[in-house]
């Protein structure tokens, strides 16, 4: 296989101080140490994302999917692990070991994030155009005309009418808010888009539109996407490869068809069959 655009090695995120027992590999109760109660939200996770692919991440609630995504977007400090981006210092520098300024650079130029909760990704009181412009300014854009042009392109890409660009996202439906979030995430042509349960909570018909949009964006923007969803129909529709998480660990991965049609691990079999 070609070099990945993103490679994560041994990512671990813990909440708690740990004890002799869990530090030395003692068995956890799901993701929690039975002695010191430390939560191992992500536990020695390795992930590679390849150019132009959509990588699905599935698992039950609490399995560590959001922790993985938020770690990648530097929403908090990880406990252990390393990460490399093809587009950052030729993939030779650990992204988690960078200064705040470098992490901001990565967030503004190389990665875009769309959260399940639009309030985490958008300023609800700013205009939609203002939300996108904020991201452009963060990446160094200063020309008013240039930014206006880019905002118009992005709103077109996510099918939001130009006539609504001055309205704040708080006036929009859930599906439209997600589309503004997606346009903001795409503003600086990132190589990687992180999508965390972006269709959860939306009506089915609205979900379908957002999913179709993600498919279109992958083609038009030649972007690599990590897509968290607990909905296997979403994963089947969009993901080329899929990772299954349980209790903070990756327990199975492979081509999506393989994982969904011929799961090997008992947990994945249960997950797939419970949803058939
Ligand atoms: N600040 C925190 N302190 C302690 N534990 C936490 C904290 N944040 C997350 N966790 C725990 O980490 C584990 C992983 O949570 P995470 O949100 O990543 O799961 P998830 O798979 O995304 O679940 P969901 O689908 O419900 O969002 C859970 O057990 C959660 O309770």
From TrEMBL:
Assigned keywords, A-Z: ATP-binding, Nucleotide-binding
Name listed for the protein in its UniProt record: Putative phosphonate transport system ATP-binding protein
Example of a GO biological process term: organic phosphonate catabolic process
Keyword ATP-binding applies: yes
Keyword match ATP-binding: yes
InterPro entries: AAA+_ATPase, ABC_transporter-like_ATP-bd, ABC_transporter-like_CS, P-loop_NTPase, PhnK
GO MF term set: ATP binding; ATP hydrolysis activity
Pfam families linked: ABC_tran
UniProt source species: Hespellia stercorisuis DSM 15480
Start and end residues of each ABC transporter domain: 6-272
Top-level division of the source organism's lineage: Bacteria
């Amino acid at each position: 296989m070609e070099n990945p655009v993103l490679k994560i090695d041994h990512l671990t995120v813990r909440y708690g101080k740990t004890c002799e027992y869990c530090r030395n590999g003692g068995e956890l109760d799901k993701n929690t140490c039975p002695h010191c109660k430390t939560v191992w939200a992500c536990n020695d996770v390795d992930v590679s994302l390849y150019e132009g692919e959509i990588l699905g991440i599935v698992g039950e609630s609490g399995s560590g999917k959001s922790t993985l995504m938020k770690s990648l977007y530097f929403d908090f400090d990880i406990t252990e692990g390393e990460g490399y981006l093809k587009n950052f210092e030729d993939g030779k520098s650990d992204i988690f070991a960078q200064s705040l300024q470098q992490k901001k650079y990565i967030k503004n130029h190389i990665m875009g994030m769309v959260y399940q909760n639009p309030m985490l990704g958008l300023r609800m009181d700013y205009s939609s155009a203002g939300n996108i412009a904020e991201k452009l300014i963060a990446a160094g854009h200063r020309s008013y005309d240039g930014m206006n042009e880019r905002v118009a392109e992005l709103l077109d890409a996510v099918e939001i009418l130009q006539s609504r660009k001055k309205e704040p996202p708080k006036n929009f439906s859930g599906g439209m808010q997600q589309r503004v979030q997606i346009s903001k995430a795409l503003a600086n042509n990132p190589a990687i888009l992180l999508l965390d349960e972006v269709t959860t909570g939306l009506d089915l018909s609205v979900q379908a539109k957002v999913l179709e949009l993600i498919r279109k964006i992958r083609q038009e923007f030649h972007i690599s996407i990590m897509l968290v969803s607990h909905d296997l129909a979403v994963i089947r529709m969009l993901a080329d490869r899929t990772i299954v998480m349980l209790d903070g660990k990756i327990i199975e991965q492979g081509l999506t068809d393989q994982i969904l049609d011929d799961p090997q691990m008992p947990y994945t079999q249960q997950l797939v069959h419970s949803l058939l």
